[in-house]
Queue: 3 jobs
Job 1
Amino acid sequence: MASLGEQELGLLKAFVAGCKSNPSLLHQPELDFFKDYLESLGGTVPPPAAPKAEESSSGHGHSHGGGHGHSHDGAECHGHGQPEPAVVEEEEEEEDFDTPTPEVEHTKLEIPGTEGLEAEDTSSLEMGDGKAAPSDDDAGAASEHASKGREALSNRDFPAAIAAFSDAIKLDATGTRAFALRAKAHIKSKQPHAAIKDSDAVLERNPDSAAGFKWRGKANAMLGNWVAAYEDLSKAQSIDFDDETFDWLPEIKKNATKLKEDARTYDRLVAEREKLERVRRQKKAKRDYDRSASSTSSASSSSAGGFPGGMGGMGGMGGGMPGGMPAGMAGLMQDPEMLAAMQDPDIMAAIMDMQGNPANLMKHMSNPKVAAFIQKMQGKMGGGMGGGMPGGMGGGMPGGFPGGMGGGMPGGMPDFGASAEPAPEAAAPPPSMDDID
């Protein structure tokens, strides 16, 4: 191929500059051959710009110039309505995966128990020693104190009843009767915490005591513990039916049902929140992974631009076309090993030095990495750099070896492999492209 003259080169450079400033030129049908060539080398041609909507003139979309500019034969002009307004598409906001799902906002339902309850201190309440067997005298005295307590309870003298049952428990704490009656006296005195302590003592000695469940259930109801109250009273009824317990149950059941429904609602909201949070974390992890992969891919693509100022996409073609692109260059730029080698600082420094002065090639041959790189490039270019590239690299890669390698090394490229044997004499180099008319 004959070399281009200065005028042709100037036109070509102007054309490339125009393509850089307005890549849409490459989408003209008459330049399809050039666009296909660029894409075959791995270049990317930007998509054509979207056409801008032309604004209408005078509402008709055509000029009337003092009249319509066309004849309607006296008929009314139709088809000149106002143009339809452009539809503005709203950009979709990117979903927020970084903000945690809000915590559940739920006010727990509370149904108060008996009003006017005073604070209690049950630490000094006599509980006796349930493991010590009483003597006959103590057992008899305890029985007498229990009788006095029952009498005071029937007379609604609740403090006296509590004191008498405490004296009985102090002497004999092995039974359940004194504890159950004192629990009842505590209920009548509005002391639910003390009643629960006595009821627990009853159930420790007899787990199937209806009285123990009854008074503990009533005490829980007084404290607003409706679910626990309903469970205790239902258990008491299943052991021994009681009319008083039967009268308490309807209201306690209603309140317990409300609290159970409220608890189920809260549990459902928590479960839904946990599900949303789990999905958010999964989407966030996927988004972060995709971003990382995209960033790595972009960095790899940009770093694989090849020679400095060279094949970096579309913009790298400037100045490289004159004289023609060597046939193996596309394969060279797609070779992973070559691309990796071009990231080596030593190799890139040698390339840049040889760009400034191709005669410095021999200076870098002592570096095995540089020698191996040039040997492989020689093979990729198909024919060798030692006299094998007519006129060098035909005008050079864009920003690459200026003017090529100056006709190559005389006598051919030396063998930098492991063999120490002298290379065979190279054939005489063909004439330079500058000598071809």
Note: The first helix runs from residue 6 to 21.
Job 2
Amino acid sequence: MSCRCEPGSSMGHSKRLSRKRAPDISIPPVPLPAVLFDLDGTLIDSNYQHVIAWAEALRGAGIVIPTWKIHRRIGMSGKSFVRELVREIARPPKAVDVEQLERKHDRIFRRQIRALEPLPGANQLLKHLARHGIQIAIATTSGREQTTGLLRQLKIPRSTEIITGDDVEKAKPSPDIFMLAAQRLEVPIDDCIVVGDSAWDLLAAGRKSALGVGLLSGGYGEEELERAGAFRVYSDPADLLMHIEQLGLPGR
């Protein structure tokens, strides 16, 4: 038995509603995060040269420390780690001129810069990010002069921001250097990915809620980097590029 509905009935009203199309809601695309790189041990294979330079500089001041202890602190500011190492000596020297030690380290290290090589995939990773319009910064504890020499070993995209230890009052593990890099790029720090090889990079990133990504190419272990806050750990820049979609970035 069929039922005829009056024009004002509820069934007729339902039919009219069903014919209406839902309004289009346009969602603007979410911008890709910026990527902030450490330099030594992350893009350039230079950590062990730093260890040798520091060991020689310290010995010249009568401070003999096992090189593995020096390596554990590469990535910290020179002033911070020298003071910490001296405190661990049973009979520390009465006076340590940290600035003089830093200058001597820099002189020794500069002699080795021309022989240094980019880590596998470093140039390819930078090129890939730049091609996709992803903002890049390099934020390193090293001073401006030393950094300039190291950057000559890389193919740096033109738009890359460079931040050195001379640009901030406190170096890693303080987050200042990554904060400044994010400011220069005009990107919130919590919308940045920090790529580094040391626990100090990841601690600095985590203090300001940036996403930390660790690389094994500086000599730290995977477990240590994860404990320091790494979201993912890769062997080197080439390995990161191979798995870059894991970070929400476009692949090749």
Note: The chain has two domains: 34-46+117-247, 48-114.
Job 3
Amino acid sequence: MPVVLFAVMLIVQTGLYFHARQVVEAAAQEALEAARAETATADLGTQAGDTFLAEAGGVRGAVVEVTRSGTQVVVSVTAAAPNVLPLAVWQVSASATGEVERFIGEADR
């Protein structure tokens, strides 16, 4: 019986891990979209990622890092999935990269 209970808990833990991974990937995309606007900043991207994670839930200890240069935005999100089995910390991470949006005038096209 303990083996069956452990197997069920392992299945639940795996589901929580995959859910947390999807939440972290979505947060990275949200942060990227917020930070890549022409007048945006890296702080706006970080704030968007943090807000998404707070609303979505399903992760612990999330860290959103946004780096923005003149042409590119890089977002990295790291968090831990909730634990059912106290055997290890199930770390999840995702990153997203995109170009900064910019207006190109008619003469430059």
Note: The chain is about 45% helix and 25% strand.
